[in-house]
Design brief:
With 171 residues, the protein is mainly beta. The chain has two helices and ten strands, in the order E-E-E-E-E-E-E-H-E-E-E-H. The longest helix has 13 residues. The protein binds zinc ion. Pfam families: NUDIX (PF00293), Zn_ribbon_Nudix (PF14803).
């Protein structure tokens, strides 16, 4: 989470101020206000043609070594769907297609602060997994034989995806 002592625009020491009923920092010289907004993250609930779910084991904090759904931060200029497919490709070399939106969630993360998490259902249409440095291992698992996923939000997303009556098609 970003904290500032000096104004990033003009270098003047920031002052505490209550603006729009929230404690914020403001620059007394140029009036720059430090708005704190959640970081957007996408998560992929990605299945293959056999309805097996892609699960990875994370190689970096937060939740290092934990089983998880693949995902990551959006980059400036990309749509959430593009970011979700890019993260999937980077972490596992798998290509897929967005099948529908599962939901949008808010979480407080100890490393990154406030997160806006957007989860998509994805159909993967390439077979071979090749992991990158962010991942210890990755595989497709039958829904009844998933590894022990202990990240509450990821379990929530899996449960929400299962309760969708029919996949909402985006194309
Ligand atoms: Zn300033």
């Amino acid at each position: 989470m970003h904290t500032f002592t000096f104004c990033p625009k003009c270098g003047t020491p920031l002052q505490e101020a209550v603006i729009e009923n929230r404690d914020r920092q403001q620059c007394p010289a140029c009036s720059w206000i430090h708005y704190r907004n959640p970081l957007p993250v996408t998560i992929a609930f990605a299945r293959n043609q056999d309805d097996e779910l892609l699960v990875i084991r994370r190689a970096h904090p937060p939740a290092e070594n934990e089983w998880a759904l693949p995902g990551g931060f959006l980059e400036t200029g990309e749509t959430p769907e593009e970011g979700c497919l890019r993260e999937l490709l980077e972490e596992t070399s798998l290509k897929g297609r967005v099948e529908g939106l599962i939901g949008a969630y808010h979480r407080e993360n100890e490393m990154y602060g406030s997160l806006l998490v957007i989860a998509y259902k994805i159909i993967v249409h390439t077979p071979e997994i090749r992991i990158n440095h962010e991942v210890h291992e990755a595989g497709f698992y039958h829904p009844d034989a998933l590894p022990d996923i202990r990240i509450p939000l990821h379990n929530q997303i899996i449960s929400d995806a299962a309760s969708l009556v029919s996949p909402g098609s985006l194309r």
